[in-house]
Amino acid sequence: MGDVTPESSALPGDGLLLVGRVARAHGIRGHVIVNPETDFMEERFRTGQRILVGPPGRPQEYEIEDVRFHRGRPVVRFGGVGTMNEAEALAGSELWLRETELEPLPPGTFYRHDLVGCEVRRKGGEVLGRVTAVEGSIERSYLVVDEHMMIPLVADICAVDIANRRVTIDPPEGLIDLNRPVGRSR
To answer: Hey, what's the torsion of the CAs at 56, 20, 53, 92, to 10 degrees?
Structure first.
């Protein structure tokens, strides 16, 4: 439990998931270095994969023609991008996949976009708020509740029910009080 891929929705209901950003051009043959936003780099950045590049409202589709991994980041060449100048023009661009193209995750693993918006309540029923973000790595993810409370996403604390859009927590003594904003009480 607690494994969360950092892929996140662009906007609710748009069906696009952010999987990375182009950092910069690499070399003279059109390659770019990608800052990944996914824990599934080999699946998301593979030869033949179609990626949407640009802002979520008007991305352009490219096919990955070549990829290798260097220091934990993909180095990618897109079809139609063959020069350093063309690659430099992509610097800063967001990289998207269509949600419909994603494979189901193993049990106990969740996409961040599936958790955002879920109601968070204590085991006894007290509603604490809604998940506004999921942060951290796949090994150390935590839920951000109402933009201020952080709850570690681990099986000993969280029971996730995606179908009912709910996370039930059984936090250790003091965790909730530690995370409450100043001026708010139970």
So the answer is: 90
Do both 96 and 124 map to the same domain? no
Domain assignment of residue 184, yes or no: no
The sign one gets for the Cα dihedral 171, 177, 179, 185 is positive
* pLDDT tens, residue by residue, 133-153: 888 877 788 899 998 899 999
Tokens representing 96 are: 């998207």
pLDDT of residue 180: 65
Domain around 150: 116-179
The torsion angles phi and psi of 123, rounded to 5 degrees, stand at -55, -35
In a domain, 108, yes or no: no
Tokens representing 101 are 């193209």
- CA–CA separation, 160 vs 119, rounded Å? 10
State the first-to-last Cα distance of the chain, in angstroms, to the nearest integer: 28
Sign of the Cα pseudo-torsion (84, 88, 91, 97, in order): negative
The CATH number that applies at residue 45 is 2.40.30.60
Q: What is the DSSP string of 136-176?
A: S-SSS-EEEETTTEEEE--TTTEEEETTTTEEEE-PPTTHH
